Amino acid sequence: MTQTITVIRGDGIGPEIMDATLHVLDSMNLGLQYEFADAGLVALEKHGELLPQATLDSIRKNRIALKSPLTTPVGEGFSSINVELRKRFDLYANVRPAKSFPNTKSRFADGVDLITVRENTEGAYIGEGQALSEDGETAVLTQKVTRRGSERIVRYAFELARRTGRKKVTVVHKANILKSTSGLFLKTARAVAAEYPDIECNEMIVDNTCMQLVMRPEQFDIIVTTNLFGDIISDLCAGLVGGLGLAPGANIGADAAIFEAVHGTAPDIAGQGKANPCALLLGAAQMLDHLGECEKAERLRAAIVATLEAKDSLTPDLGGTGNTMSFAKAIASRI
Ligand code: ATP
């Protein structure tokens, strides 16, 4: 493989977990070239803007980026750099795996292995038409769902199922109450599902989904849903399997894809070598899958599991006494 990827080292614990992740990727001799680009607080300090044109150009050219968490300072133009990146590159699919790992403080030590596929560009989450009346008594928001937006995300979920050998897609909605928006999503999902007779499709109302996830998460394989429901459900799933330190995410569009850790910049532990690099490493594994290097992605995941099983050099959040880089080295040694 010869592939150049854009690497954004980020803010807070970002540079530490990125260095650790690149150490592991380097140990795999993947033939990856890194093009470093700035975004967030670092970019504001160096270039006077949060999302420099050079960074956008780099992502556009390479089509693949590995990104650490970013700080978006209040009052600097964007409400969130991550949301801005999704918009700029039309990254319509937010893909978040949640899998049980050994020796983690999780409710489900095994049995959870699911992926949430969240629509990333429309619905209530994007805050379209937000307004507060002059007297501050009434707030409104437009919630727009389109057939095109629904179709492409549901199709992504079914294609992902086929590609990864998964057997079931659960369409999560609230069409019984939100008859127009969630109704259109569900109707569109049914039409797409009919094209995939080899994949089981079931439908579940979002509130029941939350209860089912907490009680019997092993029944889920791939969940596909709209933006706001997906935002909530994917964090719930991260909580089922041990929290944010182990939760990766991908934002995927037709022309670009950005892979990341789901957690933030963790300013409380930044610069102390305490950050767990696993979420970003698992994001890198998703990137390898996306690049068609599925066997290498599996090897990386297996090395993470083996290191957790051996309790070798784990970071303090996992109850260990290791640090970010010693943990990464322990993982690299098992690949
Ligand atoms: P931000 O404002 O960037 O979202 P935050 O601190 O509000 O930052 P997170 O960064 O997600 O939110 O952190 C939430 C908690 O989880 C913090 O206590 C943080 O130290 C911890 N945490 C987050 N990521 C990691 C990690 N990779 N390793 C260890 N602890 C982490």
Tell me the β content. 15-25%
Helix/strand-derived category reads alpha/beta
The largest β sheet comes out as: 10 strands, mixed
Quote the average pLDDT. 95
The total count of strands amounts to 12
Distance between the termini: 18 Å
Task: Specify Rg, calculated over alpha carbons.
Answer: 20 Å
The sequence of SSEs as H and E is EHEHHEHEEEEHEHEHEHEEHHH
Q: Which sequence of strands runs across the widest sheet?
A: 2-1-3-12-11-4-5-10-8-9
Organism: Lysobacter arvi
EC number: 1.1.1.41
Keywords: Oxidoreductase
Family: Belongs to the isocitrate and isopropylmalate dehydrogenases family.
In short:
The chain is an alpha/beta fold.
Structural features, described:
With 335 residues, the protein is α/β, with parallel strands linked by helices. Helix content is 40%, strand content 18%. The protein contains eleven helices and twelve strands. The protein has helices spanning 14-27, 41-47, 53-62, 81-88, 147-164, 181-193, 206-215, 227-240, 278-290, 294-310, 324-332, and strands at residues 3-8, 32-36, 64-67, 93-99, 113-119, 131-132, 139-140, 168-173, 200-205, 222-225, 248-252, 257-261. The strands form two sheets. A ten-stranded mixed sheet has the order 2-1-3-12-11-4-5-10-8-9, with helices on both faces. A two-stranded antiparallel sheet has the order 6-7. Strand 6 and strand 7 form a beta hairpin. Helix 5 crosses helix 6. The longest helix is centred in the middle third of the chain and has 18 residues, at 147-164. The chain is globular. The mean pLDDT is 95. The site of adenosine-5'-triphosphate has 16 residues, from loops. Belongs to the isocitrate and isopropylmalate dehydrogenases family. This is Isocitrate dehydrogenase. Keywords: Oxidoreductase. It is an enzyme of class 1 (oxidoreductase). GO terms for molecular function: isocitrate dehydrogenase (NAD+) activity.
